[in-house]
Each structure stands twice: as structure tokens, then as C-alpha cells.
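Bumping my old thread because nobody answered last time. Still need a sequence for this structure:
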């Protein structure tokens, strides 16, 4: 029997403005979709370079489907390892400046599988307080002790590293670009601490790959830092699906043998491999794409600041705009939608109570007209929602 407590819990979420619902949309371009018959500007996508609709990415993917079919049909260790997996892994290694890499069926699987393979009971993980849920879940799954350090706080981490010697293996793990706050980890300091305290350093470049660095190698490339484990996803700027871990061949061999999310899950589909491969090649050939992204980001930030909004950070292409309490946050996001712009609210428990925010994410594919529409929607919503915390 389905226990009544489950329904009670749902009702409680609804009462506290915390109930989440799915919206079904039909994309018409990288920057717009149709929702309930209306064209909406998408200001929430992680398709940062708009490559989901790039002709070369689409054509290469079609060719691969014609040749390889749809699903991979088995896990990589059975019969699911395709030559194009190897080709993609070589391309990733190239942009990540690493010896080799391994692809997983998602970024979530890459994080949970990798962390839980590398450390276990008797080991310790030092984890940034605002790390992505997939890192947190990987840490919990590993059964290592987890020591959380304050967000981006190297001094706090250094203090906490005094406990390092009580354990066998140790791992420091962090996002590079934080998906909610859009700020960036101090990678050089983290690398130094990892070396001094004999820890592995793992970074999650989900929001940085394709966007930062001359080759699109992420913040590790732009900051010239080589972590031991360089993880990321194919699902954001690379406009596909899947995750990867780049690093040494020892790391790769270890994960092939020990990462349960790699071993016991069907291989990445040929279509996903093809689109990620094509996206990486398009990024390499077109630095203009990244330039356009930054131009659009600057336009939207300037406009929001002129309207009086408080931008929580300006460090990356992700622009979080403070709204305040949960109810106002939900109302603000609904108002934006009424004005033809989709920008969901991030609220407790994803962020602290009372600090709900809309996360504005424009891409290289947004036009000036799209950006004007976003700014107009913010201006109108500000007039309707009473408690917005302005700058
Ligand atoms: C920082 C970070 N890591 C990992 C993931 C998981 O990646 P994927 O969507 O490919 O499972 C995400 C995506 O939501 C993310 O933002």
C-alpha cells in the first residue's frame, strides 16, 4: 500500500510554495520554445553556445544515427563500446589537456560513480558547501567521511585539512563554475592545498567546458590548473547528453573497473556521442561563438543593473538575480512567464531561505530582440511583485 505520509509531504511542499511541477515545451530555436501555444524566450538554458540547433551538429548526428542506429544496446563492458566512444574520449582529452578520458551516461553518473569509486570507508572528502547535488550524492554514496568547507573559502579549507592525517586517501572536490551563484572556485589555491596535504583534487566543469578557455577546456584551461580528476558534462555547452571524466590512464582504468555507474549502465547512445563530438569541433573552429555569448551576457547584466536589480555575482556567464522570500520568488517567475520569458526560480532548499533568485542564462543564440524582451519582462514583473530585494 502507498503510505498516506507521501501525500502529506506533497501537501506540505505546496503550502510552503516549494512544490515543483514539470512544464512541457516544444523548442523552436536554441533561445525560444512554445508553451501552451505561445512563443517564450528561454532565459534558463544551459545550451550556452546554442549548439543544439547548429546545422553541423545536427547533420553529423543524423549521419551517425543512419550508420549506428539509436541505442548502444549494452553497457560499455559488454558490447556497448563503439569506436565513436573512443573518438569522443580522445577529443575530450585534447580539450581538457589530459592524457585520456572516459564518458558516462550523464554528468550525474560521472560524479556519483567516480567519487564513490575513488574513496570509501577510512577516507575523507573535503567538499565545498555549495557543490552540485551529484557531487554531494557521490560523497554520500562513497561512505567516506565528508568535511564540508565554507563556499570558496580557502582559509576554512586549510583549517579543516588539519584532520587530513587521520585518514588514508583524501579528496578535495569542487565545482569550477557554481551553477546557482555563477561564481568560480579558486582553483590555483585548491591545487596548492591538495599538493601540500597529499589530497586528490577533483573539479566539476559542467558549466565551464566549452565556455571558458581558448580551446573551450573550461576554467582549468583558463586558470592553467591541472586537477587529478577533471569531470564535466556533455549536456550543457556541448548540447548533447552524458558526462565525462578526464585525467590519467590509471584513473581511467580504475574507473572502468570500479565505477558502478559506468559498469552497470548502458553506454552513451551513438546520437549523444555524435552531437558532443560535433559540438567540440564546432567550438574549436568558431571562437566567435564564445565572444557572442559574453556580449549577450554583458548586455543583459547591464540592463538588469539599470533596472535596479541586485546581481548576486558577475563572475561567469550565469547571472543570478536576487528576488528574496520564496513566495515573491515564485510570483516573480510566474510574472516573467506571463510576459513571455522563462526564467525559473531557485529557492530553498537549493539556496538559503529568503534568498530565492532567478538565474538568468542567455546564450550565444539570443538575439538583441530576445534580450530586450527579457529586460522588459523584468521591468514589468518588478512593478507587480512587491517584495523584490533590489540593489
Ligand atoms: C555542476 C553540475 N554537475 C553535474 C551535473 C549533472 O550533469 P548531467 O545533467 O549531465 O547529469 C550538473 C547538471 O545539472 C551540474 O550543474
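Sorry it took so long. Here it is:
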Amino acid at each position: 500500500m502507498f503510505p498516506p505520509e507521501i501525500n502529506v509531504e506533497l501537501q506540505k511542499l505546496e503550502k510552503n510554495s516549494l512544490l515543483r511541477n514539470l512544464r512541457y515545451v516544444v523548442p523552436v530555436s536554441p533561445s525560444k520554445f512554445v508553451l501552451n501555444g505561445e512563443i517564450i524566450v528561454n532565459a534558463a538554458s544551459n545550451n550556452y553556445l546554442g549548439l543544439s540547433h547548429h546545422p553541423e551538429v545536427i547533420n553529423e548526428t543524423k549521419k551517425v544515427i543512419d550508420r549506428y542506429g539509436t541505442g548502444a544496446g549494452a553497457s560499455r563492458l559488454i558490447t556497448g563500446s563503439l569506436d565513436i566512444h573512443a573518438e569522443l574520449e580522445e577529443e575530450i582529452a585534447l580539450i581538457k589537456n589530459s592524457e585520456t578520458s572516459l564518458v558516462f551516461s550523464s554528468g550525474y553518473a560521472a560524479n556519483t560513480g567516480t567519487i564513490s569509486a575513488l574513496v570509501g570507508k577510512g577516507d575523507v572528502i573535503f567538499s565545498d558547501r555549495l557543490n552540485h547535488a551529484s557531487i554531494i550524492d557521490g560523497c554520500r554514496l562513497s561512505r567516506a567521511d565528508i568535511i564540508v568547507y565554507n563556499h570558496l573559502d580557502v582559509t576554512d579549507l586549510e583549517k579543516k585539512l588539519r584532520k587530513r592525517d587521520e585518514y588514508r586517501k583524501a579528496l578535495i572536490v569542487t565545482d569550477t563554475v557554481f551553477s546557482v551563484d555563477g561564481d568560480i572556485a579558486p582553483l590555483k589555491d585548491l591545487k596548492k592545498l591538495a599538493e601540500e596535504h597529499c589530497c586528490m583534487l577533483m573539479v566539476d566543469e559542467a558549466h565551464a567546458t566549452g565556455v571558458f578557455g581558448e580551446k573551450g577546456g573550461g576554467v582549468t584551461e583558463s586558470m592553467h590548473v591541472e586537477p587529478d580528476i577533471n569531470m564535466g558534462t556533455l549536456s550543457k555547452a556541448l548540447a548533447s547528453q552524458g558526462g565525462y571524466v578526464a585525467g590519467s590512464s590509471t584513473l581511467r582504468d580504475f574507473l572502468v573497473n570500479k565505477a558502478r555507474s559506468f559498469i552497470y549502465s548502458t553506454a552513451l547512445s551513438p546520437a549523444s556521442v555524435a552531437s558532443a563530438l560535433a559540438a567540440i569541433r564546432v567550438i574549436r573552429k568558431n571562437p566567435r561563438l564564445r565572444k557572442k555569448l559574453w556580449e549577450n551576457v554583458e548586455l543583459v547584466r547591464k540592463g538588469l543593473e539599470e533596472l535596479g536589480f541586485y546581481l548576486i555575482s558577475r563572475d561567469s556567464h550565469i547571472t543570478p538575480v536576487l528576488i528574496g522570500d520564496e513566495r515573491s520568488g515564485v510570483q516573480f517567475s510566474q510574472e516573467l512567464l506571463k510576459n513571455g520569458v522563462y526564467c525559473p526560480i531557485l529557492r530553498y532548499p537549493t539556496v538559503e531561505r529568503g534568498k530565492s533568485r532567478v538565474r538568468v542564462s542567455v546564450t550565444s543564440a539570443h538575439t538583441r530582440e530576445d534580450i530586450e524582451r527579457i529586460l522588459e519582462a523584468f521591468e514589468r514583473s518588478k512593478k507587480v511583485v512587491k517584495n523584490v530585494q533590489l540593489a
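Residues 44 and 343 are 5 Å apart (CA to CA). Let me know if any region looks off to you.
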